[in-house]
Amino acid sequence: MDQQTMMQGLKQEMTQREEGFTLIELLIVMSVMLILMTLAVPQMLKLTKQAHETSAIQSVRTIVQAELQYNSMYPQNGFSCALAQLGGDPKSGAPSAQAAQLLAPDLAGGTKGGYAFAVTNCNKVTVNNQDMYTSYEVTAIPLSVGKSGDRGFCSDENNRITYDPAGGTNCTQPIQ
Questions:
Q1: Which H or E run contains 125?
Q2: Which of 93, 107, 124, 176 is most solvent-facing, going by the fewest CB within 10 Å?
Q3: Residue 81, Cβ neighbours under 10 Å: how many?
Q4: Residue 134 falls within a domain, yes or no?
Q5: From the CB of residue 168, how many other CB atoms can be counted at a distance below 10 Å?
Q6: Partners of 117 in the beta sheet?
Q7: How confident is the model over 96-115, as pLDDT tens digits?
Q8: Contact, 93 vs 70, CB < 8 A?
Q9: What is the pLDDT of residue 30?
Q10: Domain count along the chain
Q11: Domain extent for 76
Q12: Is 20 among the domain residues?
């Protein structure tokens, strides 16, 4: 073999060895990615819970506004004691006391953004043989405490939102 052929063989062998990554390099890259993920995933879950809680507070405000509108539209009924009455499909015809079309369908269905919503503690009086609701409480509880949210939220006809730090409906702490 001449020297030129031998040099070409060595060059080919060196370029073949330099292709790709070594096992050590791959393990180092995977270790760095794993460390970054262990730092990022909990923070991302915390941000998701905060977003669900913010959405729940806004949804409670929306339901309270719908209750006030319902009361002004149908004063003979007072307030509504069901989310379904505040909702309704706009394609089904004109709004009515049974389907006022004041809430979006997802919220009127009772769940949105990891929270379950309800209208409870309705106070009913009978006036001229007609039932009328004079008060209510809107509740929002996380579907999975610790995952979709940590706190439960409540409001009533006074439009004051409070929260339960345990994720239930025992709302005693005011929202700041």
A1: strand 115-127
A2: 176
A3: 20
A4: yes
A5: 15
A6: 140
A7: 989 999 999 889 999 999 99
A8: no
A9: 92
A10: 1
A11: 38-174
A12: no
